[in-house]
Amino acid sequence: MMKKIVLLLLCLAAAAGAVQAAEKKPLFQVIKLEGVITSPQAKYVAENVEEAAQAGAEGLIILLDTPGGLDDAMRDIAKSLLNAPLPVIVYVYPSGARAASAGVIIAQAAHVAAMAPGTNIGAAHPVAIGIGGGQMDKTMSRKIENDAAAYARSIARTRGRSEEWVEKAVRKSESITADEALRLRVIDVVAPDIDSLLAAIDQKEVTVAGKKKKIAGAGAVTSAKKMGTRQGILAAISNPNIAYLLLLIGLAGLYFEFSTPGAILPGVIGGIALLLAFFGLATLPVSYTGVLLILFSIVLFIAEIKIMSHGMLTVGGVISLALGSFILFDTPEPALRISLQVLIPAVLAASLFFIVVIGMAVKAQMRKHFSGTESMIEGRGEARTDIDKEGKVFYQGEYWTALSDEFIPRGAKVKIKKVDGLKLIVEEIKNEK
Questions:
Q1: How far apart are CA 87 and CA 81, in angstroms?
Q2: Is residue 231 within 8 Å of 43, Cβ to Cβ?
Q3: Which of 135, 357, 403, 423 has the most C-beta neighbours closer than 10 Å?
């Protein structure tokens, strides 16, 4: 009897283990890589590759939609994918998305490259990145192009994809559709959604960390992960439009603080915005000339307060600000330039702000003083004694010692020309009763 009970328990345990094993489905973590590729996004990808491996996931799916981005950031992402300890699938998704420029290399570095119908990939010609970049001589341009082409070919060779096409994408900025990419062996799969993608790559063999591995995609579940607040902020700051707006806000805040000392809050906000702008600009193709023109415009606006130019310095400042803004990001890469929809309103708003502040400062300087010795200038009083070089005047309820080069009779109306310590230098107001 005891043997039967033990046998029954063993059977139940085995059945429970089988059910548990059946319920444990392969897990794929899913992240999004959207917009301009920058350093914060490269770190985001690297962290998620590591976290997915630690969580025991079957693989990591990266939903890609990018117009391109920074070369250094792109290479960092490629390193993360090439050395990933688990399969990484780069999926150009949804329909209408693209893997342009840096996106081409990122897709090629993945263990599985996939695209949704209605997407495109290509146009990976390198552009100059960094402060003062954008314009290169032919020799340097050729060196960068050759380096990028060799890099793209080596990655395509590693993943068994078309070396010829990726070189065309780099040298000739060639771009193709999802179906063409599949036919030319640029990608591995065309799938309309993630479920179809997982079904298509089930049992596909890939090389992970030097070892062959078959991807278990059948019946897999997915877990979407959003970018954290810190990473999202850093990624946003690295956007050319945001970096430019932060630069203007920072300069406006500091200018307001300098023109109106003691306001404090504008200076604090301006300083923070300026530091954040410097973080973003440090990773973008910024033109020295553009930066200097914008700074020169601030100098002209400040000079307008100190020098009465009848608005000429202000006009020069507005022109300098506009020109500097238009050439601030010197690159042929559209993703790394300021959108005209942002640039034009920003320049107009910033110019209006500076004009208003200048007007307020000039008006304050020309306004009559209501306290201190300055308020006494041009004030009127009455001579209470004869003023022969020196005498007494009555002004605003007080008796003052007065000095004058001309004789002023007692009872005459006088006007204050200057205050010298506790003495007033006056002159007689003639022809006035």
A1: 9
A2: yes
A3: 357
Tell me the pairing of strands 189-190 and 380-383.
Answer: unpaired
Query: How far is it, in rounded angstroms, from Cα 14 to Cα 295?
Result: 76
- CB 60, CB 88: distance < 8 Å: yes
- Number of folded domains that form the chain: 3
Does the structure show a pLDDT above 50 at 17?
no
Please tell me which of 127-141, 171-185, 257-271, 305-319 the model is most confident about, judged by mean pLDDT. Answer: 171-185
| Cβ atoms 309, 300 nearer than 8 A | no
What are the distances in angstroms from CA 380 to CA 32, 122, 348, 406? 76, 81, 46, 17
Could you give the CA distance from residue 351 to residue 348 in angstroms, rounded to a whole number? 5
Question: 396, 366, 30, 51: which is closest to 224 by C-alpha?
Answer: 30
How far apart are alpha carbons 277 and 283 in whole angstroms? 10
CA 418 to chain centre: 55
Report DSSP letters for 123-176, one per residue. -------STT-S---HHHHHHHHHHHHHHHHHHHHHTT--HHHHHHHHHS--EE
The range of the structural domain enclosing residue 67 comes to 24-230
First-last CA distance in the chain = 136
The reply to whether 424 and 300 lie within a common domain is no
Helix (H) or strand (E) holding 63: strand 59-65
Distances (CA, A) of 249 to 38, 111, 258, 283: 22, 44, 14, 19
Residue 355 sits in the same domain as residue 404 = no
Domain boundary (319, 345, 366) is at 366
Q: In the predicted model, is pLDDT for residue 401 greater than 80?
A: yes
- CA 111/CA 144 separation, integer angstroms: 26
| Residue 392 CA: distances (Å) to CA of 181, 398, 433 | 100, 10, 20
Residue 5 has pLDDT above 60, yes or no: no
Same domain, 181 and 86: yes
Q: What is the pLDDT of residues 32-62, one digit of tens each?
A: 999 888 888 999 999 999 999 999 999 999 9
Specify which residues 382 forms β-bridges with: 394, 413
